[in-house]
Amino acid sequence: MSRSKRKLDHIRHALNRDEIAVNSFDEMEIVHQSLTDIHWDYISLQTQLGELSLSSPLFVNAMTGGGGEKTEVINRDLAIAAKETGIALAVGSQMSAINDAQEKRSYQIVREENPNGVIFANIGSEATVDQALQAVHMIEANALQIHLNVLQELIMPEGDRDFSDRLQRIESIVKHIDVPVIVKEVGYGMSMETARQLREVGISYFDVAGYGGTNFSKVENKRRKQPFRAFDQWGIPTAISIAEVKASVPECHVIASGGMRNGLDGAKAFVLGAEAFGMAGHLLRTLMKEDVETLIDEINHIHHEFKIAMMLLGVTEPVSLKGKPHIYAGRMKAWLDQRL
Ligand code: FNR
């Protein structure tokens, strides 16, 4: 199967899932406070993610590109929505465009539509330093995401089977790239051990992309005659993964993603120590089922929800949410009691 066809399949399968009803953020509650001493107008969404200055804690996480005209239109619309709402945006894996110049267009449209926006490039961990440089250069990216997707590759019939030199590749990329390098998962979450290994080779930005949202085991299983259903529930739930990574590399920048549903999930992630939150599936579904105006309204709504949480907790900047009183229960409590 061609890479373009596979990308369109991913979009189709990701769209066909129901909205996320329950996830790990439901096992965490922020403790309500009855007094607040700030004025709504002083609440700012301005967010500092390490070296990156963002006008919002929310960003569109990596999804697509390289699937011809269809993905070009999707990327153009995502870029328009990102520009209108002032949020950052990650493009999908650029490996196809690195190998085939004709595919570049569907990525470069994002920079054309949003010349001054914050845009993340995206490559797989199999990339070389030269390919990483090409990806950044292709869209004048402000940061580079490297995705880790071992289980997805293993379930894909045509997926990679050799991961023997991935950490060394990541190490050489981070040494040679002068924009921030974010290592991300794709929906299975990141453990404290993985974060520590990555930290040792120089990574300081981690996007946990945890379990609870888009599920590539299910997506890839739909494309198999004999599915590996046993792995449909594999992965570290997002809220748990944030807590793990933050505990293991407290000095680093943790990004929350994987099944984020609304601004309150985003605020909870910040309470746990995240410094930005990404959404992929939910925003793509909003765009594809409705239109770009509805997507813009939805992003503004998520901002509004995030600000309500800030107001309730009496903070004027997102970073001050960190450590606000909260409790966790159920599986999240059981997990963290054994791991932290
Ligand atoms: C993705 N994701 C993804 N991630 C990545 O690093 N490179 C990629 O090319 C893609 N491609 C892709 C396509 C589609 C259609 C979807 C829905 C997702 C994964 C994405 O960035 C994110 O990590 C997960 O989807 C989990 O977040 P959500 O979807 O639960 O918000």
UniProtKB/TrEMBL annotation:
Keywords: Cytoplasm, Flavoprotein, FMN, Isomerase, Isoprene biosynthesis, Magnesium, Metal-binding, NADP. Pfam families: FMN_dh. It comes from the Bacteria. It catalyses: isopentenyl diphosphate = dimethylallyl diphosphate. Its EC number is 5.3.3.2. Substrate binds at R6, K7, Q152. GO terms for cellular component: cytoplasm. Its cofactor is Mg(2+); NADPH; FMN. Involved in the biosynthesis of isoprenoids. Catalyzes the 1,3-allylic rearrangement of the homoallylic substrate isopentenyl (IPP) to its allylic isomer, dimethylallyl diphosphate (DMAPP). Its main location: cytoplasm. It is found in: Cytoplasm. Mg(2+) binds at E153. This is Isopentenyl-diphosphate delta-isomerase. The keyword Nucleotidyltransferase does not apply. It is an enzyme of class 5 (isomerase). Residues 166-321 form the FMN-dependent dehydrogenase domain. Homooctamer. Dimer of tetramers. GO terms for molecular function: FMN binding; isopentenyl-diphosphate delta-isomerase activity; magnesium ion binding; NADPH binding; oxidoreductase activity. SUPFAM superfamilies: FMN-linked oxidoreductases. FMN binds at A62, M63, T64, S93, N122, K184, T214, G259, M260, R261, A280, G281. Belongs to the IPP isomerase type 2 family. Signal peptide: none annotated. The keyword Iron-sulfur does not apply. GO terms for biological process: isoprenoid biosynthetic process.
